[in-house]
Amino acid sequence: MTNVAVVGAGVMGTGVAQNLAQRGHTVVLIDRDAQTVERALARIGLNCRLSHMFGGPETDSEEVLSRITGGTDLALLADSEVVIENITENWELKSELYPGLDAAAHPDAVFVANTSAIPITRIASLTSRPERVVGVHFMNPVPMKPAVELIPGHHTTPEALERVRNLLDSMGKKAIDVNDACGFVSNRVLMLTVNEAAFLVHEGVADAETVDEVFRSCFGHPMGPLETADLIGVDTILYSVEVLHEHYADSKYRPCPLLKKMTDAGLHGRKSGQGFYRYDGSGAAVTGSRDALPAAR
User: Fold this and answer.
1) Number of helices and strands (H, E) in the chain?
2) Taking every annotated instance into account, which residue ranges of this chain make up the domain 3-hydroxyacyl-CoA dehydrogenase NAD binding (predicted)?
3) Which residue, 202, 205, 209, 256, shows the most beta carbons closer than 10 Å to its own?
4) For residue 189, what are the contacts with CB-CB under 8 A and spacing of at least 6?
5) 283: left (phi > 0), else alpha (psi -120 to 50), else beta?
């Protein structure tokens, strides 16, 4: 098994660390905020205990947590063979982080950028090892999703790509090969859909529940686009749309003002308890959840 460092203990980093530890890997979970790390470890323990209720395997939470070391110091990743970065989809933050990762990691370590939109070649340019930077777009919730997008950068070597492919296989993930382009395949399509669905609510065409019901009942989608936005994180949706808009300079990616307002208001979806819907402590939507939204205009 591989020693893996997971940098960023938000929703995605927590899921990646849990998935790795469940599959027998030794994990270091790092975030600049100690309380965020503590919450992530608590969430992993809870997720393991509840896993069987959501169709997952019976999991010993104590055994899983025994494989994870949490902390705030990048020096903890010195012995890791793979470093998986999961911080906010923000170029300035990534620009600040990667030189530190580069200095702290073993020279032979492979970097995995878990990004939903930023091109891998651009991220690799922040390091002295662009040949060992690979993109992996994990889906949320990570332990439950069977597939990922696997993206090489311009300089990525076949050896680095194969090492990450083998790691993904050990995690139970099907790697779908995608060429390097902003948004890759999934988010070039998904972010447009979610953004346009937000515009429907913003313009008063329909409320969130109605929009989602159309997609569930008419197209057989298990979740509507705005339920999906709450699962991913409304703030993450906004940042991803902004990255697409900046990169392609195409007005079709203009962010919906409602996404900006909700992000500013802290209505980030399930992780904050409110988004397009309200959520209780277990993450279940609450009746009357449309009242969670701020005024559209």
Assistant:
1) 11, 8
2) 3-180
3) 256
4) none
5) left
Which of 128, 137, 78, 73 lies closest to 98, judged by CA?
128
Phi, psi angle pair for 268, to nearest 5°? -95, 0
Residues designated as active site = 116, 137, 149, 187
Helix (H) or strand (E) holding 123: helix 120-124
What CATH number has the domain spanning 3-177? 3.40.50.720
Question: Tens-digit pLDDT profile for the chain (297 aa)?
Answer: 689 999 999 999 999 999 999 999 999 999 999 999 999 999 999 999 887 666 666 688 999 999 999 999 999 999 999 999 999 999 999 999 999 999 999 999 999 999 999 999 999 999 999 999 999 999 989 999 999 999 999 999 999 999 999 999 999 999 999 999 999 999 999 999 999 999 999 999 999 999 999 999 999 999 999 999 999 999 999 999 999 999 999 999 999 999 999 999 999 999 999 999 999 876 677 754 455 565 443
Does an H or E element contain 202, and which? helix 186-202
pTM: 0.88
Question: How far is it, in rounded angstroms, from Cα 25 to Cα 4?
Answer: 7
Complete DSSP assignment for 217-245: HHH--SS-HHHHHHHH-HHHHHHHHHHHH
The CATH number assigned to the domain with range 186-292 reads 1.10.1040.10
What is the four-CA torsion angle of 183, 185, 186, 189, rounded to 10 degrees?
A: 80
Measure the CA–CA gap between 112 and 124, rounded to whole angstroms.
Answer: 10
